[in-house]
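Weekly structure sync, notes
Attendees: PL (lead), two postdocs, one rotation student
Agenda item 3: pending single-chain targets
PL asked that the sequence for the first pending target be pasted directly into the notes so everyone works from the same version. It is reproduced below exactly as submitted, 285 residues in total.
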Amino acid sequence: MSIDSLERTSTLDPAEVAAHYDDLDKFYRALWGEHVHHGLFLTRGMSPEEATRKLIGVVAAEAKVQPGSTVCDVGCGYGGTSRVLAREYGASVTGLTISAAQHAYACAVDPGTENPRYLLCDWLHNDLEPDSFDIVIAIESSEHMPDLAAFFDQAARVLRPGGRLVVCAWLTRDALRFWEQRMLIGPICREGRLRGMETAGEYQRLGRESRLIPISFGDVSRQVKATWPICARRVLGGLIRDPANRRFLFRDGGPNRIFALTLFRIWLAYEVGAMRYGVLTYEKL
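Predicted structure, written out during the meeting:
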């Protein structure tokens, strides 16, 4: 495995993940807007907004979202993807987030709406009914789960037979060099409050063990990595233009502020091939 299993599973507290996103709420929304995930840049000149919507479109196609589909959006963030699937695809969507700040924002976008509905809860300890969803999606949230096997177990539990799980995941190359692990992947995981990063093969193996059969895997690393130079430029521009941003990111006592600098580490990890990005699709037996 890319990171020792004890390092990946014993030190990550879900409360730390929630605090990370709550603390960086303003920063994340300024950086990404309501879609806190990579963009899929398929053509030259595509805007970040177009690219993030393109990734949602790929996920919807892999999941076979149709009008009336019941969808669980695990780690829904600010609810951007949930709203697209509800409004444009006609799905009935339940979004889960562990962040109180993200939950409050998502609920405030459409006060009183029942679709999507947003739950503030930990995916690994949810009260959703078994066999209650046609589709489960997880766009860059599985990395924050302290137990990846339990993540798949929950997906298998709430999916109906024949239902689909689509996971967009931060991955690693099969054989990392020592310096890549120590200087790139390890720090990215610590500073981003990630359990760790596995290979695509590990994701597929754990899915099978939860009775979720791998259907397809797409490595879209080349198409998503343009996200990070864009983010880096936005961060630098914000620091130059606004003293408030400098105070926010560099004030004392801010344990999550280092992640702003980690953006550059992620950019390098993609460039050297240590970090990968995959879209994995499974079907429940």
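Discussion points:
- Residues 1-10 have pLDDT under 50 and may be disordered.
- The longest strand covers residues 159-172.
Action: rotation student to compare against the earlier draft before next sync.
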